[in-house]
Amino acid sequence: MRDRIFLDTNILVYALLDEGTKQQTALQLLQSGCVISIQVLNEFTQVARKKASLEWQEIADLSTAIQTLTEIITLDKNIHNVGLTIANKYGYSFYDSLIVAAALEAGCNLLFSEDMQHGQQIETLIIRNPF
To answer: Per CATH, the architecture of 5-128 is what?
Structure first.
């Protein structure tokens, strides 16, 4: 069975806004047929504008590329409620918990993130730091 992969925002940032040693790994993940949530796309937009100081057209072009390469999960009240449960049970921030909840909703078995606990299993989902 092929892994179903969900990406956290930091993977997109490394893939598209960084030129460091992590970029190649992040690009490979982004191009692997992965899943993100609309929250991840929104967070990427914020980082691209505020930290990378990109112009809106540059951000729109990157957003289009991301949308072409990924499946995007929208957030709903079920994801919100599961996110609350995950935050309470595992101690993650609410926004990280929403990412975990969206990954579970999408049927992903791997979540790649640099910011969450490597090796943590939440239900059927395993969190991995690819770096």
So the answer is: 3-Layer(aba) Sandwich (3.40)
